[in-house]
Structure formats: structure tokens, C-alpha cells
Amino acid sequence: MSWRRVAMVGLVGAAWLSGCREQTPSAPTPIAAVTRQTPPAPPGPTGSPVTAAVAVAPRVWTQGRQEVPVLMYHDVLDTPNLWFDLSRADFRQQLQHLREAGVTVVRLDQVVAHLREGAPLPPRAVALTFDQGTRGLYTTAWPLLREFGYPATFFVHTGYVGRPSPTKEHVTWDQLRELAASGQVSVQPMSVTFPEFLGQLPPAALRREVEDSFAAVERELGERPRYFASPYGNGDERVAAALVEAGCEAAFNEVRAPCAAPADRLFLPRYNPKRLAEALQRLSAVPSAPSLAGPLALQPAGAPPTGPVRWQSGVWPRQADRPDRLRLGETALPCRHLLLAAGRLQPLADADELAWQGRPLVVGNQHQVVITPYRRWMSARGHVHSGSDALDQVVRPASFAVLGERWIRRGGQWLARPSLDGAALVGIDSRGALWWGRVRGAPAAAAASLEGWPEVVVLAR
């Protein structure tokens, strides 16, 4: 099998179907303090590399090659009355800044099609969403959106449409019909009564919040909704299961990150607009390359390549004695961070999760491995999954996850040619085999020996 086919193969797994206001960073979890229950490993592979047919709609979308910030606004008023609202002047200034920054505002449908199918997007694409269906979105935000010609998605809690809440007035169904008829605004649900912790409701109440909100939008606007926003961003796996049952295509939370492949379609992140500058800064710094290399069979691949790199194959990290070192049998290699090994989770600090988005992650078990960009939904701290179960959406069951320093080859191309003196590496060779190694002298010769390798990651130096 060619490396091109390897790089684009889908995620393997048989249990695919089984966001929140920004939180104050909590203290890092002590090393090796979280133990996860790993299910029995599947039978060993029969060939190398491995491919698998996915029989159900995958939870993780892998086709997109761009990072797309999705902004999450709330009310827009002449005089804001809550901290997360924007004034009319500030909102106009943000829309003008998007225009001057060369940004193309796209529909949420386009973001989803890009992540799921690889549908093309403009180079600097951003999407706009608005939560809670407050009246200021119709009276203040909508005229400005219309003036700038920007599409948007309004998420509404259907039980409050046309009715006041303790702090806000809300749009009416007639106003929402007008917005939907414009072709510029999409209306989607975010529950009926807006409970803060949707996943903690009894099962029947949770289903009603999801299904009744979908039914209300369909009844009033004549079209079945496709998306959902979790109230307060507090979705979890129970909410995800209810959304799957309701036929939801994608769900959004409030995790501070861009939408990018690989993307868990039921936990898509959004930026608070107060972080607009941070969101736009990433737009010009992301390489275009496949989001996924693998899954590959993790088994001995014959004689190691010759040269100044000491390679080994068919091994996987099984010990977690410290977070910056992994053990492969009797060999120890440095790494940026060992997230998961021997059933023990070693989370990153919150600031590190933000800084290391998009960096290479090697995740797998004793049978298969994937190399993929690290995304915040993959961690317990940056996401609302329980424990490290999010990693099982990449490889099931995930028994190790190693965060590397940088890609030097990706998609068959050089991204950088740093000095490799003493570097710990992991890579996929031209035959589709995975290798771990350490450069022992002659760094220039080591780099030359990697020509033709589709994927090479520097774990640490």
C-alpha cells in the first residue's frame, strides 16, 4: 500500500456511537494519578499496514486541512448588561476587523463539509454563531450582519422563544422565520429550557431537551435542524448519545480552540469573541496536510533502515515513569509529553494544551498506531469527555499517547530541516512501516536518510 493511501485511511473502531464558559485553570493533575480501565485488546493484525471499513457514521472527521475558528457571540446591545455581551459599536468594530484582515466569513455548513469531506474553503475562513436567541440579535446584530453580508448561525433555546427569561428578552418565531427566509441566517436548537448541566438530567428529561428542541425548530421553520449547541458548553457522552439518537450531525461547545481535523463531530469548539485576535493569529500558521497518518499495524517491520539513526519497530510505550520520557522495551526515548501509557493518564497543564494544539500526537495500542495533530477534545482537561476516553475515538482502545515536539516531514514533504543531533524520532517509512529511533551522530546524514518518508516527527531533542 502506498503512503498516500495510508495517510488518508479512516479511523478504525467498532464503537463510534457509544461545549462551556471558559473555566479558571485548575491545578495540574499529579503525574500518573488517573488510571483508566482499558478494555481487552482486539486480535492482532494480519497485515501491515492496517485498513478497516467503518460501518457507521464516524464520530471523528479527518478530511479537513484547515483550522477554522468558529466565533460564539451572545447578545449585542447598545448597552450590554452581562459580561459576555457586546455593544453595537464593539460588534461593528469586530466585523470591520474581519473584513480588513482578509477573512472570509463562511456558513457553518461549509465548515462541517470541510471537516467531514474535505470540501474546499477560502484560505482564511471564519464562521459566526450566536447563542440563546436574545432579542438584541434581531434588533442589533442582524442589521449589522446584513450590512456586511456575513452569514451566521443562531442557536436558540426553544422554550424561551417569544418569552422573557429572568435577564433577557428573546426573539419570536416570526422573527426567526424572517431571519431564516433571508438565506443568510441558519436557526438551530440548543435545548428547550437551557439547563446548565444537560448531561446530569434523568435520561427521559435529557432526551426531551434534545428531541423537543429539534422538533420545535422543524415545526416552526419547516426544516429539520442539523446542529446543536450544548447549554453553557456542558456536553458529555450522555448528551452525545442523545444527539446521535436525534439525528444531530454536529454539536458545538465553548472550548477555546479552532475547528480542525481530526474533529470529534459532537464536541466541536468555539472561541469567545473576546479572543478574536488569538483566533485569527492561527489562520496563517497551519500547514495543509492530511490530518491522519494510519492506522498502521504495530509489528516488526524487518531489518531497520541503515544510517546514523538507531531504529526499532513493533514496540509501543508501556511505562509512564515520567512525563518527558517513554520506554520501548529496554530503550528510553525523550518526548515532549507522554499523555497516556500503561493505563495512566498524565494530563497537560491548561496553558500547555492551548500552546500545543496542532502538534504531532502518536496514539495507539499494541496492535496499531496513528500519527495525528493534537486537538483539545482529545484531553480530559480541555474537553468534557470523562477521563482519557476521548483518545478511544482515535484508536480503540488507546493505551498510549505521546506528544511530539514538531513534524519535520508531513504528507511526504519537508516542513522543517532542524538539526537532528541527538533527536528522538518516530516516523513512517516509504513502505508504510512505523519506526521509533534516536539519532546517534551525523545529523546531516540522518536528515538525508529520511528522504521519501511520508511522516517524521521529532519527539524531543
What keyword list fits this structure?
disordered N terminus, 6-stranded antiparallel β-sheet, 10 helices, TIM Barrel, 461 residues, alpha+beta, 7-stranded antiparallel β-sheet, 2 domains, 22% strand
Explain the layout of strands and helices.
Layout: H1 3-8, E1 34-35, E2 60-61, E3 70-73, E4 76-77, E5 86-87, H2 88-100, E6 104-105, H3 108-117, E7 125-131, H4 135-148, E8 152-156, H5 173-181, E9 185-189, H6 203-221, E10 227-229, H7 237-245, E11 250-252, E12 263-264, H8 276-281, E13 293-297, E14 309-312, E15 325-328, E16 331-334, E17 337-341, E18 344-345, H9 350-355, E19 360-364, E20 368-373, E21 400-403, E22 406-410, E23 413-414, E24 424-428, E25 434-439, H10 443-448, E26 455-460
Helix pairs in contact: 2-4, 6-7
Number of strands: 26
Helix vs. strand class? alpha+beta
Would you tell me the overall average pLDDT?
A: 82
**Amount of beta strand:** 15-25%
> Mind describing the biggest β-sheet?
7 strands, antiparallel
- Taking strands numbered 1, 2, ... along the chain, how are they ordered across the largest sheet? 1-18-17-21-19-20-13
Low-confidence stretches at least 5 residues in length (pLDDT < 50)?
A: 1-57
First and last CA, distance: 31 Å
Number of domains: 2
Q: Report the helical percentage.
A: 10-25%
